[in-house]
Design brief:
The complex is a heterodimer of chains A (223) and B (332). In chain A, 7% of the residues lie in helices and 61% in strands. Chain A is mainly beta and 223 residues long. An eight-stranded antiparallel barrel of chain A has the order 1-4-5-8-9-10-11-12. A four-stranded antiparallel β-sheet of chain A has the order 2-3-6-7, with no helix packed on it. The two termini of chain A are 37 Å apart. Chain B is mainly beta and 332 residues long. Chain B is 14% helix and 34% strand. The radius of gyration of chain B is 19 Å and the shape is globular. The two termini of chain B are 30 Å apart. Classes of the chains: A mainly beta (223), B mainly beta (332). β2 of chain A pairs antiparallel with β12 (182-188) of chain B.
Amino acid sequence: MRRAAPAAAFILLLVASAAAAQAPAAAPASGSWQIDGGIIWSGGVDLGTRAAELTRNPDVGGDPLQLFSTENRIGSLAGVGARVGVYVAPRVSIEGGLQFSRPEVRTRVTDDFEGATDLTATERLTQYLIDASAVYHFGSGRTRPYALGGAGYLRQLHSGDHIVEDGPEFHAGGGVQYWFAGVRNRLGVRFEARVSFQRGGFDFGENKMRTIPQASAGLAYMF
Amino acid sequence: MRRAACALAVIAAVVLCAPAADAYLKLGTQLGDRLVTLKWEQFPIRYFVADRGVPDVSPDQARQAIGRAFATWDAVQSATVSSQFVGFTQASPLDDDGMTVLGFENQPDLDRVLGATTFTVDIVSGEIVESDIFFNSAFAWSVAPDGVPGRFDLESIALHEIGHLHGLGHSALGETEQRSGGRRVLAAESVMFPIAFSAGSTNDRTLREDDIAGISDIYSAPVFHTSTGSISGRVTQNGRGVMGAHVVAFDPATGALVGGFTLDQDGTFVIAGLEPGPHVVRVEPLDDADIESFFDVSQNIDTSFRPAFYSSLVVVPPGGTASGVNIAVVSK
């Protein structure tokens, strides 16, 4: 939740600034199509800590001897995404999307028993997220805020592509679209923030639902 | 061979070569110009127990403890070993008589040796045809479920020696401290570490990931090759290979530690039996036990470098090898 707060603030800022730039425009008719694409920022994920431990000689003590410790994390990253949507009603659209990114797994290795130098060992994942969302659009002007929610499928491949980790994804969020004048209101920009809940991706065995803030910006075109 | 808390340079002269093969340190022998891994070809391994007890341990109690230790190795699902108790015998575990015998022998001159394993090997094939284990009755022993202070746990020591009987060498997954009179083990994560825990401990009745990887590497069940993977690479110092470096793979998902060694002058190593997924790789000099506990003294073992980690996470593929893990170390 601590990480979601900046994302929420981002939405409010966008909506507030967009509201000041209103210009009349018709709401899309049912059956209209929209495509958009852009860049996506995802927050990092803490994957917990794990120590390399040796069984202690009972004469020396009870707790395991820590050979070294690791602190594991997937770093924040930028990726790309594309979506296609169809308006089923003037205020409601259904979207399908694909995201691609290369998250970096970072393992910070510290506190070596024999004094090996600390370092951060890394690995790049290849990540795909396919999702579907229901979107509710507010207003009908040139600036149109919206809220969305949906579910998806997360697929991560480790380097070498021999190991696949996958699982479900759920998300909720909101954003704003601004449609430019002069191109028959068809070209616009889209800003969005969402919270993504993921389970089943790479997690060093924790198998917990992870909460990841995401923000995106891109161009949209309506048919 | 398993040593008591303090270790001296007592060494079995039978088999101390380390075949340059996968993973674990295996026992081997030189056959002509060939270095051959020692292993059994016939299963179950049929063994006798010497019909001699010691204070607090009757022959039947010894049989039960030894049977439990064999059963622990037999239970490794990724390996294909099995054993069978044949009966008691008056024969000595020191005799070369065609029988595999385990039992107590009084060896007061070996005042740092709890037990030792000897072999009779087919000099053509390298097959083990007999292997005996003696437990030194100069020490106090116990088979009590929770151990007895001041007495060494027979099942724990038997588990270690039976690892040798199967052909496993020593593991270096442990830390020791030098004290007056020898080394004391601080901690270990392998039954095959050469120095025993203190008398009274029963911690070594359970195999660790390192032991399971080792036995599975020699006697692999089909599932071993498909469900696990390996890491290979080199350890170098100033561009030259480092011989005898201890390389450890750590799985942050499970906490498992599996070790291996660089086994030639090029500094190449392979660690097998690893769960698929990312691993942290660490290299250290072989300085927590006597070198001759691991390698023949004639080999040029380099212990002059500092421990280090490999800079990347190494992703082990299922049924495959993550290669090219080259670690440059610096001198102490």
